[in-house]
Write a structure and sequence with these properties.
Helix Hairpins; Rossmann fold; 431 residues; elongated; five-stranded parallel sheet; alpha/beta; five-stranded mixed sheet; Heat Shock Protein 90
């Protein structure tokens, strides 16, 4: 038995809709009714109608939108779309033609002839005028499209200007705030040093473990706050697309040894094994040693943060064709593919920040999400690039991650120079 044809009928007027719905149902068609264009799109995807009968005036979508979206989103490019138009309004007929509809049926609808017209459209009848009469309508459509595009472009330009202004305000605020915090912190740091070196205080610290713990905690907190402010100031320089390089002969072995020594206690506390051979790292290098030390310190800190206790971290280096390639590989939780570019953005932190601990070196520890952004800025300022490879994030399987940095052996800029950085970070690639 042949299945009845399905008709999607779009009409927001309840009174008029009921009459046509009954007529089509009585004629044997399966009728699906929508009160607007958006609802019609959902029903079209569900029921795959053989024909769409729609009022030319819908409350939510215009005739062009409903025609194009019905055919595009449902994958039914040849589906007949017939408009119900006012018989006395020639403009309604023209609108249907310009929208690319198959044809029209006049309102008020003659129920006696409605089913015959529907059958004709289902059988492939094209109710649109000849090609010559379509030219004015198509020209009008093209004009409308151009006007809409121009309007959209102007709107996007205005939005873009506002976004750039807000971004600049944000960068200025971050930089000013960091410098304002640095001033009182310097005073606190100085007074703390005076207290720590006071013979009376030293004697109390030696005799009383609680005093020693308090003073040590105070010093550690000041140092940490100083580090956070330094990170913010560094990233603000990178965000303003300028970073200062003080280049000179650099022994990368010395740089890496200092980095490793800075985390020796943490590695021991968390039973993390670090594999590296200083002989692999070049001793003849031309770069900014302090910024490179910061970059590699951030990479090692990141590996420590996302590697569970008892895991291992490997740092490798090789030189080829005037380039230094270094890698930091961990046996940590890994990084999802959709985050492998985002992690280099300013203030981006993987995972739920509410679950982070206050320690930057504890497993899944906290932080501002600036370390990798700073590392990328430093690497790109040297004319290099950085990327990460990981099979995904899995706390049970522990796929790990490998961060790779490539930097020329000799950065081609003067000894003290401000190298321009692009926000798009074109030098960063994912492999």
């Amino acid at each position: 038995m042949t299945q009845p044809a399905t008709i999607l009928y779009i009409e927001d007027d309840d009174a008029g809709r009921l009459m046509i719905q009954r007529a089509l149902t009585y004629a044997g068609y399966r009728v699906v009714v929508a009160s607007g264009g958006l609802q019609a799109l959902e029903l079209a995807r569900q029921h795959h109608p053989d024909l769409v009968l729609t009022d030319i005036n819908l409350p939510d979508l215009g005739e062009v939108e409903i025609t194009e979206r019905l055919r595009a989103e449902t994958g039914q490019g040849a589906i007949p779309i017939v408009a119900l138009v006012a018989a006395e309004r020639a403009s309604d007929h023209e609108r249907a033609v310009r929208a690319g509809m198959t044809g029209t049926i006049d309102k008020p609808v003659d129920v006696a002839t409605l089913t015959k017209k529907i059958e004709d459209y289902l059988n492939g009848h094209d109710g649109s005028p000849d090609a010559g009469s379509l030219v004015p309508g198509r020209a009008a459509v093209n004009r409308e499209i151009v006007q809409q595009l121009e309007s959209n472009v102007r709107e996007l330009e205005a939005i873009n200007r506002d976004l750039r202004r807000l971004d600049q305000i944000k960068d200025d605020f971050i930089q000013l705030t960091a410098h304002e915090l640095r001033t009182p912190l310097t005073t606190v740091y100085g007074y703390n040093r005076l207290v720590q070196t006071s013979p009376a205080i030293q004697e109390m610290m030696a005799k009383n473990p609680e005093v020693n713990a308090v003073m040590s905690g105070l010093s550690e907190s000041i140092e940490r706050l100083n580090g956070v402010i330094s990170e913010i100031i560094t990233i603000s320089r990178i965000a303003s697309e300028r970073v200062e390089l003080k280049l000179g002969p650099t022994n990368l072995r010395v740089v890496i040894r200092r980095v490793v020594e800075g985390y020796a206690q943490v590695l021991e506390q968390r039973s993390l094994t670090l594999h590296y051979d200083l002989d692999d790292w070049p001793s003849q290098f031309f770069a900014d040693s302090s910024l490179l030390e910061l970059a590699y310190s951030n990479l090692l800190s990141n590996a420590i943060k996302y590697t569970p206790d008892g895991g291992s971290i490997t740092m490798r280096a090789s030189v080829s064709d005037g380039w230094v390639r270094t890698q930091v590989t961990d046996t940590g939780i890994g990084i999802d593919p959709d985050q492998q570019q985002l992690i280099f953005d300013h203030f981006y932190t993987a995972g739920d920040t509410q679950l982070h601990s206050t320690s930057k070196t504890a497993f899944r520890g906290g932080g501002l999400g600036l370390g990798l952004a700073i590392t990328r800025g430093v690497v790109e300022a040297h004319g290099g690039r950085i990327w990460v490879v990981s099979d995904g994030c899995d706390e049970d399987r522990l796929p790990g991650s490998t961060f790779t940095i490539e930097i020329p052996l000799k950065t081609q800029v003067p000894n003290v120079f401000t190298r321009r950085l692009g926000r798009a970070s074109s030098g960063t690639t994912s492999h």
